[in-house]
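Good morning C.,

I know you're traveling, so I'll keep this short. The sequence:
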Amino acid sequence: ATAHLRPSLWDVNTPGDWGWGLWGTTWEGQGTAPADTQYPLYGDWLAAKHVIIVEGEKCVDRLKAMGIKRTPITWPGGAAAWKHADWDALTYADILLFPDHDDPGFKCMRELGAHLAPIAAQVRIIDHSALELPKGWDVADEDWTAEQLNAWARDLIKPLAAPSNEDVPRDFHPQDIHRQDQTDQELWGVPLDLWA
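The tokens, ready to paste straight into the viewer:
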């Protein structure tokens, strides 16, 4: 199959039928991409070192509109499709996972976190599983400011996984990934005492 970029919005017409847009590829001559195909991420992931991974483009767009300091990104195809995304760009990134409030959302983020742990500087999750929120709730359902989101999430951030030492080069220093921010103590632009 030949990959081509096309300037249209991403669309999935039927299960397994991938149509890509500005941030992806389409497979000319066949309706289903090969099983080992890795799709690009949605969001400004190219040089991101502080990322927040959410489920769905609307969540990425909502977080960007809030003006958070972390780079929001997602993958195409829903909760079960995270395995088909190309996560290599997040090597050495400080990753925060923000699942949808449902079983598939929590399951995929925990699996994704375990997958990213060997390449990431650290992986944490906003664990809102114990809260009474509507099934399927996500950050796009709220009209929060960055400060309101920060206050809500502060006590919910938990470590999920740590990178494997053998996968991190000996000359790598985790503090190197923080140089894009004014301070290591910021998540959305508001100081956070739990970020060390």
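Safe travels,
E.
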